[in-house]
Amino acid sequence: MSGKVARAERLERSAGSADPTVEYGPLQTGDRRLLDELCARVLDAPGRVLELRRWLERHPVAGLARRNVVARCGGRLVGAMTVVPIEVRGGGQSLKAAWQQDSAVDPEFRRRGIATGLIDAAAAGLDLVMVKGTSRAIAEARRAVGFVDVTPSDFLVRVLRPRGMPLPGLQAAGFLLSRLRSRTAVADDPEVRRDESLDERFDVLDTERTGQPVLAVRRSATLLQARYRELPGRDYRILTLAGHNRIRGAVVLRPPPRPGGVAWLVDLIRSQADSRVEDRLLGAAVREAHALEAGLLAAFASDRRARKALARWGFLRTHRSPRFLVRAQNERAARLVGEFGFDVWHGDGDLEMSEEMEETQCKAHG
Asked: What are the pLDDT digits (tens) for 57-102?
């Protein structure tokens, strides 16, 4: 964690610090059309956002289901924020938390404190607020109201096929460095297999994470199945590692949109108590990306142990960040955040679900 976590008394901000003529509250049924219109005017990629919202409304799953906090001025809807309630667990404790996503303020009402009011209204009653994939300007605004950066939190890449790709010189050098640093590829692991479902066996892994010395979002088998098998507009490869009559872990990949393109290592699902799982699954991910003819295999991981394992497989830092920030809402949450790191992957939160299929964010600096 970079810097100190702000003390609880600094974080007890209220929506009253914003424009007093603006009221904050939950989205009402009759406001749905107004919300869609606001998102269409303000958000950069409203089509994907609206598609996701409609799908989630039809498939409410804990950890994915959303609620909306809105701002009204004189009866007019002037701002909105999407909130995804989650449970964060680690160190034997549980925190009531939420991802804050898709913040939008009517351009006519900006610079009146509405964004801050939405942040505070959406954080009411929580222990911890999390955000990932925000712009530089919004990240600065959040830091001003008590959010802190989780570090390390930059994208990582494994350069696989430099030929035919528009690689700058440093990235071509990165390919050579990846090869020099990478573990030697081994034969296919017979216990790692492609799987079509993420069934109730993954609930055991989810339960085991509670006692681990790292903070992680609770993810049930139902959530994983909806996220990686039913999400519209996405196709994932799931490789599972089984042994001793149980599931030991899984790695989730998003194939490249074309040969030589970027594949994503979206998620690594495992118990940290099983020390060999990470290396075996990451090796399987690199082999699968080669088979998919990817030029780059990109990843985001905030857990230091996982990042060391990625480095052993030739992943390099890009020094480009999705800007992962958190804000503790009370002393207990501040203590846990200060004591433990976070185990968050690209598939956590909204960024990977809602982003367009572009590749610029993960280009390596070498």
From this structure: 777 888 888 888 999 998 889 999 989 999 999 988 999 999 998 7
Q: Residue range 344-352: average pLDDT?
A: 88
Please check whether residue 344 is in contact with residue 216, taking contact to mean a CB–CB distance below 8 angstroms.
Answer: yes
Which pair of structure tokens corresponds to residue 119?
A: 């942040």
Q: How buried is 230 (Cβ within 10 angstroms: 0-12 exposed, 13-18 middle, 19+ buried)?
A: exposed
pLDDT of residue 188: 67
**Helix, strand, or coil here: 233?**
coil
Q: Report the mean per-residue pLDDT for the chain.
A: 83
Distances (CA, A) of 71 to 29, 65, 80: 15, 20, 6
Residue tagged 């599972």 (tokens) = 240
Which residues are paired to 63 by β-bridges? Answer: none
Which residue type occupies 189? D
Q: Which residues of 153-169 are buried (b: 16+ CB within 10 A; e: fewer)?
A: bbbbbbbbbbeebebee
Q: Please check whether residue 314 is in contact with residue 151, taking contact to mean a CB–CB distance below 8 angstroms.
A: no
Round to whole Å and give the CA distance between 257 and 7. 45
302: pLDDT strictly greater than 60: yes
Classified as helix, coil or strand, 330 is coil
d(CA 30, CA 27): 8
Residue positions counted in the chain: 366
94 CB-side CA count, 13 A: 7
Contacts of 252 (CB under 8 A, 6+ apart): 228, 236, 237, 238, 265, 266, 267, 268, 269, 347
Give Cα 243 distance to the centre of its chain: 28
Nearest to 314 by CA among 180, 153, 169, 161: 180
DSSP secondary structure letters along 162-185: -TTS---HHHHHHHHHHHHHSPPP
